[in-house]
Amino acid sequence: MDEVEINRLEGVIEAVLFTMGDSVELEKIAQAIGHDKDTTRRIVHRMMDKYEAEDRGIRVIELEEAFQMCTKKETYEYLIRVAKQPKKYVLTDVLLETLSIIAYKQPVTKLEVEKIRGVKSDHAVNKLVEYNLVSECGRLDAPGKPILFGTTEEFLRRFSVQSVDDLPGVNPEQMESFKEEAEEEVQLKLDI
To answer: CA-to-CA distance for 142 and 23, rounded, in angstroms?
Structure first.
């Protein structure tokens, strides 16, 4: 096997170990690259030596009959600095619209949100749960026991309100305008 082929196989093994995250059995790596276990082990050990010689931030470790890519202990301090930084997330128009519906109608099911928005809202609700702005707050006493969603303390903190009662109200004229628009949309759908 020439140097070019070994480098290519190292790249494949590196991609497998990086992508899988957990340890990967030697036998699976060997199957992936189409070589026997002894040859595969030699290639992985060569990679391990390269990482050490180049003083890289990552390394490959051997765990019984498996290998795993991980960070070096010496880098932990730097990793902690990054991990401690608060995650920033973006609230798109879709997320803001969904969040508004949940905030004003809570507790509310996903189906109710979808009826108001007129489109599927699974992704938006899941993102809001992931961002800890919305959470499950019970189950509706109905067939299938659908999940009820409501806002969280994190929502209150982020939007600087003490309770959902402090959310701004919609003025009656605007509400009437919204109702008329909704009725027109429903009529258009019925005419089609």
So the answer is: 45
Chain centroid to CA 84? 18
Per-residue pLDDT of the chain (192 residues; tens, 9 = 90+): 888 899 999 999 999 999 998 889 999 999 999 999 999 999 999 999 999 898 889 999 988 889 999 998 888 888 888 887 766 778 899 999 999 999 989 999 999 999 988 899 999 999 999 999 999 999 988 888 999 999 999 898 888 888 888 888 777 777 677 667 767 766 766 666
DSSP summary character for residue 170: P
Quote the radius of gyration of the chain (alpha carbons, Å): 27
DSSP, res 107: S
